[in-house]
Amino acid sequence: MKLDNWKEGASPERRKLLRSKLHVLLATIGTLASVVGICVAINGGLEFNRTKVFIGVGITVVSTIIYISMLFAPSE
Which long-range contacts (CB under 8 A, 24 or more apart) does 20-26 make? Predict the structure, then answer.
């Protein structure tokens, strides 16, 4: 019930602003996840732990794919 009231009360400008903020939040999360993946990969490389390196590379690749797909998503 509250969601219906919120949708009715939100103007198109307000919705656009919220979508824009959501895009910025997702971009920030994607960037930070990529940094974490790089750190895990470097830490695994320093410890000669192949599993950590692969996990770090996987985190970096997945977060980069999500970040790029978010950039090409329509904002409307």
Answer: 20/75, 23/70, 23/73, 23/75, 26/66, 26/67, 26/70
Q: Are 64 and 34 in contact (CB under 8 A)?
A: yes
Query: What single DSSP character describes residue 10?
Result: -
Scan for tokens 């979508």, then name that residue: 19
27 with 19: CB under 8 angstroms?
no
Whole-model pTM: value is: 0.74
Q: 25-65, pLDDT tens digit by residue?
A: 888 888 899 999 999 999 999 999 999 999 999 999 999 88
In which band, very low, low, confident or very high, does the pLDDT at 70 lie, cut at 50, 70 and 90?
confident
Domains of the chain, residue spans: 37-76
Crossing angle for the helix pair 50-71 and 12-46, to the nearest 10 degrees: 160
